[in-house]
Amino acid sequence: MIKKQTAVVRAMARGEGSFIGQIVVEPRESVLNPIADERPRSHVARVFATPWPDAYATHLDSALHFGKHWHDTFGVGILELGAQSWFSGRGQARGYAGDVITLNPGEIHDGQPLGAETRRWRILYLDVATMQPFLPAASRGAAIARPVIPDPPLFAAFARLFRLLERWNASRSGTDALACEESLAATCTRLMAHHGSAPFQPRVADGDVRAVRERLSNDTARVPTLDELGRLVGLSRYQVMRRFEKVYGVPPHAWLLRMRVERARLLIRGGATLAAAANQAGFADQSHMTRAFVRQFGFTPGAWRGTTKRRYWRGDVSTIRRSLPTC
What we know:
Elements lengths: L4 E9 L5 E10 L13 E7 L6 E8 L3 E4 L4 E8 L1 E6 L2 E6 L3 E4 L5 E5 L5 E8 L1 H4 L11 E2 L3 E2 L2 H20 L2 H22 E2 L9 H11 L8 H8 L3 H12 L3 H18 L4 H8 L4 H12 L3 H7 L8 E6 L6
Antiparallel strand pairs: 1-2, 1-15, 3-4, 3-15, 4-11, 5-10, 6-9, 6-11, 7-8, 7-10, 9-13, 12-14
Helix pairs in contact: 2-3, 4-6, 5-6, 7-8, 7-9
């Protein structure tokens, strides 16, 4: 029998540590993951602003298992405690405390703790334009070669960058912003000089799979069934599902949900309310968006909104003790 649990969500303002609010979700069976075990999973996520409008940082201490998803940005950071295993577009990966961990834009990946129940890591998400100045001049389309990099000097450089970002979040001073800028340049230049590679190329989709993706991306259309997607490209429902998953790493429904989450993130960053973002991104309601958002990013839409109220965002903290259902 599935035990009932209580989910508690807290949002804390970074800096003075002032308490913003608490949401207590009454016990209900659906907060448990029916595929995983029945133990509630500890999860603490902090979201930080950066001096760069299209970049943000996270600090997570979590036992959650993240399903396959992707980001449109680079992800670069450090594993501080414990270990993690994950599937990546560059092969199966295992990272341990002291390693640098990376993602390329569009790279399908998942993540789960390895050994101990939890692991703690920091990640800085940078769009391609922000990373561009740090790429070697002769390889403007370069990517990061490996998902796990055992490089102690690079680890120390990233650790310093994250400390500076925390200081800037507290002060919002121009002096601290300049220190962050210099640290980012030095760290990312070293990263790409020592660990850069040819551009990351996701698996190329053939025409029928591209047509399915375009149909799923259509904002105005009703969500199609597998039968309808199959008829669109002359395949059976199972053929279209298998071909799509082979290219994009997840079946059509999971891809659609993750695309909606990314759309919601951008809408919230642009100033939309949480309710409006949920509606415009195609979610049934705000709570549905929140569950999907946490599964993909590790923090709540409310914490993300707290970082986007100004051009220079203010970092928020979001603490969740719950077991989340999979898509």
